[in-house]
Automatic annotation (TrEMBL):
The lineage of its organism: Bacteria, Pseudomonadati, Pseudomonadota, Betaproteobacteria, Burkholderiales. GO terms for molecular function: ATP binding; DNA binding; zinc ion binding. It comes from the Bacteria. Binds 1 zinc ion. Residues 49-139 form the ATP-cone domain. This is Transcriptional repressor NrdR. Pfam families: ATP-cone (PF03477), Zn_ribbon_NrdR (PF22811). InterPro entries: ATP-cone_dom (IPR005144), NrdR-like_N (IPR055173), RNR_NrdR-like (IPR003796). The keyword Transcription regulation applies. The gene is nrdR. A zinc finger (unnamed) spans 3-34. One of its GO terms (biological process) is negative regulation of DNA-templated transcription.
Amino acid sequence: MKCPFCQHEDTQVLDTRVSEEGDAIRRRRRCGKCDKRFTTYERIELVMPYVVKKNGSRTEYSSAKLRGSLTLALRKRPVAAPAVDAAILSIEEKLLTSGQREVDTGYIGELVMQELKRLDKIAYIRFASVYKNFEDLAEFQDAIAEVGQERKPRKA
């Protein structure tokens, strides 16, 4: 590690600790030449896969676009913000753990539908109607019947 003061390449690690947030390693260092001290941090670099669109073009993954899609489907629905954040984290975790360098929009859409089905059935139907491009009432009825079969019976 180069010293930021004199650019000498030989520095000594005096202390190593986990940061307060727990997401980095904090190292206290001392330069062997100028004897000045400085701190460095090591963090994990997470690289999200590229998104392959239906037309074949590739773009960087955007958490903001994912949040926008979920927010639009959940508009005026009684779902708390922390639940939406948890859904986004779940989707992003699945994308990271897939190990793929590229994923198509269809895979992301399926992940979104799984989370929406868990969060709010109406939002799921809204999203599915656009995502699956419903063209007639029968497709809506099929989607509603699918969600209705999973519904838990009410207690009297």
